[in-house]
UniProtKB/TrEMBL annotation:
Organism name: Salegentibacter holothuriorum
Swiss-Prot/TrEMBL cofactor(s): FAD
Assigned protein family: Belongs to the class-I pyridine nucleotide-disulfide oxidoreductase family.
EC number: 1.8.1.4
Entry-linked SUPFAM superfamilies: FAD/NAD(P)-binding domain, FAD/NAD-linked reductases, dimerisation (C-terminal) domain
Protein's recorded name: Dihydrolipoyl dehydrogenase
Annotated NAD(+) binding sites: G183, G184, G185, Y186, I187, G188, L189, E190, E206, G271
GO molecular function terms listed in the Swiss-Prot or TrEMBL record: dihydrolipoyl dehydrogenase (NADH) activity; flavin adenine dinucleotide binding
PROSITE patterns: PYRIDINE_REDOX_1
A Pfam family that the UniProt record links to this protein: Pyr_redox_2
NCBIfam families, A to Z: lipoamide_DH
Misc note: The active site is a redox-active disulfide bond.
Single biological process term from Gene Ontology: 2-oxoglutarate metabolic process
Record carries keyword Cytoplasm: no
Length: 467
């Protein structure tokens, strides 16, 4: 094959998995080549996922707080939304962060190739740039980090400007008057909340009996007290969709009845699938499992010694922080670092709605009542929560009855996502309830709800007496 140039380590995909792997590997002295179709690293997370959605959710929360303040004697007018400026602000956030990653990549002397890679052999691949021009290269080791993309619904696989996926929703081309979100998982709820704050009448259709299937129901109950949606259809499937001049006509089939509703647009948020197709995996000598994921060992190595895989393509949970952690482990393994391996006790998860929901480790559904004590501290007993109008929140710990070791935790309320890492750290370090209850937490902060939950393991907490 002509134009061969053997690379020490090639990383395919520059999302939070790929760029974290590339940066760490370069810091460990490896010559890294990073390949991605975008002009800078960032992946789905920075360009079309975590970051733009959180920028918009920040706006949604700002509006909700301003509107809520009338209850405390401070009345704001209903804000006017300038959708073009909102979109341009969101773009600026994305640009600043992705350009920053580009600079960090250059500073580490990483060879960044803009294009799409496809394996042509065990140590060879072909890169197609954005103009369709191809070039070949060979490599000693490779880390595959090609991420995931949105799953469509067969009923909704219509290429039409009014049928959206998350990427379309984040483009903010317009604020529809009426929108149906199909899927009550975290992406559906986060983007649904954004559009509700922008003024859209948002309805949700979810196949299971509640929001966020699989998530702690105590957390979901806190969200339900404040959910911003016009209509919610549980145990409901989208049966048919028809594009009309006036919008999208949708047949929704519930447990008891079928109803037809009209919306300006439909946002499909029913899950994500790994990007393992069109990668030439056969030529490389590996294959994806029946769900499309690449199977790896705790070194993040596939069945081939020189081939690693990280991030969304290796399976659930499909989260950016899991991808980055795997990336750093794979980099250390490729650098020959002894003892490097993927072995987290917990992977925290957060839903960035208002209120935020966050959890890690053992859940109440998984816990065996005989061995595990569940303690719950209501935020109505927290001075800080009451002072900021967050009385409905909740902090929960799951603790081994015998060893008193923290096994899991869940938080619902403002900044829950910034509180959950304390519980994750406690679990990683094998901390006990007394470690948490004896750690002096600053007052008045929401973090005290973690300390007081731990106090509840031993009886009552300073600010909460069980009846
Ligand atoms: C709307 C939305 C909100 C989200 N919010 C959060 C959140 O708040 N927190 C969180 O943890 N996660 C969130 N996620 C999930 C998160 O984005 C992913 O878990 C994360 O991006 C996975 O990282 P990754 O490195 O595996 O892959 P990705 O970020 O998907 O990056 C993969 C990269 O590989 C590139 N690529 C694909 N094929 C090739 C090829 N053949 N050659 C070269 N490059 C290729 C892709 O173009 C992409 O740039 C969100 C996702 C969405 C859609």
């Amino acid at each position: 094959m002509a134009n061969k140039d053997r690379k020490e380590l090639v990383i395919i995909g520059a999302g939070p998995g790929g760029y974290a792997a590339a940066f760490h590997a370069a810091d460990l002295g490896i010559k890294v080549t990073l390949i991605d179709p975008e002009v800078n690293p960032g992946g789905v997370c920075l360009y079309r996922g975590c970051i733009p959605s959180k920028a918009l959710l920040h706006l949604a929360k700002t509006k909700e707080e301003a509107m809520h303040a009338s209850k405390w004697g401070m009345k704001f007018e209903e804000p006017k939304i300038d959708i073009k400026r909102v979109a341009s602000w969101k773009e600026k956030v994305v640009k600043k962060l992705t350009e920053g990653l580009g600079q960090l990549s250059k500073a580490r002397n990483i060879e960044y190739i803009q294009g799409k890679a496809k394996f042509t052999g065990k140590n060879e691949l072909e890169v197609t740039d954005n103009k369709g021009k191809t070039s070949d290269l060979s490599f000693e080791k490779v880390i595959i980090a090609t991420g995931s993309s949105a799953v469509g619904l067969p009923e909704l696989e219509i290429d039409h400007e009014n049928i959206w996926d998350a990427t379309d929703a984040l483009e903010l081309k317009e604020i529809p008057k009426k929108m149906l979100v199909v899927g009550g998982g975290y992406i559906g709820l986060e983007l649904g909340s954004v559009y509700a704050a922008l003024g859209t009448k948002v309805s949700i259709a979810e196949m299971t009996p509640g929001f966020l299937p699989g998530t702690d129901r105590d957390l979901v109950k806190v969200f339900e007290k404040n959910e911003p949606f016009k209509n919610v259809f549980f145990e409901t499937k989208v049966e048919k969709v028809k594009i009309t001049k006036k919008g999208v006509k949708v047949s929704l089939k519930g447990k008891k009845e079928e109803q037809n509703k009209k919306f300006d647009c439909v946002l499909v948020a029913v899950g994500r699938k790994p990007n393992t197709q069109n990668l030439g995996l056969k030529k490389l000598g590996i294959s994806a499992n029946e769900k499309g994921f690449l199977e790896v060992d705790n070194k993040r190595r596939t069945k081939l010694e020189h081939v690693f895989a990280i991030g969304d393509i290796t399976g659930e949970p499909m989260l950016a922080h899991k991808a980055s952690h795997e990336g750093r482990i794979a980099a250390e393994v490729t650098a020959g670092k002894k003892g490097a391996g993927y072995d987290p006790k917990v992977i925290p998860a957060i839903v960035f709605t208002n209120p935020e929901l966050a959890w890690c480790g053992l859940t109440e559904e998984e816990a065996n009542e005989k061995d595990v004590k569940v303690v719950k501290f209501p935020w109505s007993a927290s001075g800080r929560a009451v002072a900021i109008g967050e009385n409905t929140g909740l902090t929960k710990l799951l603790i081994d009855k015998e060893t008193e070791v923290i096994l899991g935790g869940a938080v619902a309320g403002k900044n829950a996502g910034s509180l959950i890492p304390e519980i994750a750290l406690a679990i990683e370090m094998g901390s006990t309830a007394s470690d948490l209850s004896l750690t002096i937490h600053p007052h008045p902060t929401l973090s005290e709800t973690i300390m007081e939950s731990a106090e509840l393991f031993y009886g009552d907490a300073t600010h909460y007496k069980k009846s």
